[in-house]
Request: fold
Amino acid sequence: MLGALFPKGRLQRPPAYFTPDWDAVESSVRRLARLAPEIIVTGHGPAAVGQEVREALQDLAGNFTRLGSPSSSRHLSQFGN
Reply:
């Protein structure tokens, strides 16, 4: 019941259709991971909090090519990537 009222935040890559520069995204993720934030509030969805978010961010930063950037997308070709 509490999960429905207070959903837990989670990290995920940005949607390809809103993301024209994946190199910039990777750079931002790595910089954010170095900060080791206690809480991430993005303005959409619930806040991501605590050690779990730091570990997920470190994992995303360290494995961005596999976890973060899309291998293909019809949207990527529109921006010359």
About this structure: The helical segments are 2-5, 22-35, 51-62, 64-67.
